[in-house]
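The passage that follows is intended for readers who have already worked through the single-chain material. We present the inputs for a multi-component assembly, then the predicted structure in tokenized form, and finally a short commentary. You are encouraged to pause after the input and sketch how you expect the pieces to fit together before reading on.
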Amino acid sequence: MDIDLMMRVYPFFLTAAWTTIQLSVLTALLGLAMGALGASARLSRFALVRFIGAAYVSLFRGTPALIQLFILYFGGPQIGIQLDAFEAGVIGLGINAGAYMTETIRGAIISIDKGQREAGRTLGLSQWQATYKIILPQAARLMVRPLGVNLNMLIKATALVAAISVVELTYTAQRYIGSTYKPFEMFLLAGVLYMIIIYATGRAVAWLDRRVQIT
Amino acid sequence: MGLDFTVVPGHLDIILLGCAWTIGIAVAAALLSFFGGIVFAVIALYAPWIIRQPFRLIEWVFMGTPLLLQLFLIYFGLVQIGIDLPAFVAGIIGLGLHFAVYNSELIQTAILSVDKGQMEAARTVGLSRGQALRKVVIPQAVRDVIPPIGNNMIALLKDSALVSVIGVSELTLSAQRAIGATYRPFEFYLVAAMFYYVINLCMEWVQRRIERRISISR
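Having made your guess, compare it with the prediction:
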């Protein structure tokens, strides 16, 4: 193992890891917003809105995220969408993650007993009030852990933007493998950084999950 | 520049060929991940400590890093240690191992949830521990775990697009070839997405049928 080489290149990996973290955070935020929107659409009273929500989930979960990214980044200019690689990465991955989070959020909401809403309505709350004051606070507790799984997948999925040349961890590893022919060393550098990011995120989610549980 | 789908039919032949490659690679990797998953599960549960612990570390690394990074390691790593495999073989190995680890997690849980009495009964009628595992415990565990493994296989199909990055001429790279000739990325990536979507729907249909079968057989 070439420790000298690893010591020489690791600063580049640290910079790249920071890009991966930024990508992950922005993608997660967009994914959550899309997930909330998607879940509301899937639970809507209107059949057309429900259909749009279901089509969103089915299409974006049914095709590779890499292809979605390529359509946005390479195909976008043809329909007037000009994005740089980082923006395309965040938007493409965020919309993709949103489709998965839609199902997570919807699953948590529909698992809350119907009697809760009915009881709220009986006490004179409106439909909206019952949703926001009774259903969502309870559903939010159930969402934390599965959303954590979504987040874990999403962090690993940020590696895809290497294919559109965003200089994040996987791209950096790929470039140094190409120039040094030391695949194992470069994998080790990038892998350790990914695992630190994923481990830290996992701990944060576990902490949040404990905080929101009723004891 | 606008969209013009009339260029698509002229390149449909390489798209279809790519589609066939995608299906072939996905099937081969799925088989590897299924049987690999069983082997990994048995190692993780029953191998001696000295094998089990390093093995768990490797599993942990596979679950904590992106598939794309693993593909680079396997493709370039094999070349470096003198094994020069065609890219598609490296792709199958990478996809297969990656998903074998995820399948192994499922199978481990399933093996542990098979009633202990099954193993004891098998030992009582004279089977060795290995035989009891192979003929009694694992078949029951595998049946329980087929629906979630089905989800992994659908994920595998979509992730097979990643092997285009190491130069395997499957559906995604075929689309890129057509784009190279026509400069029409939107059209061809959309066509590729459509093919993936159709394969995906077929897999979901098969999965539902298998699930129904299993629930009847119980």
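Commentary: The two ends of chain A are 50 Å apart (CA to CA). Chain A has one domain: 3-212. How closely did your sketch match?
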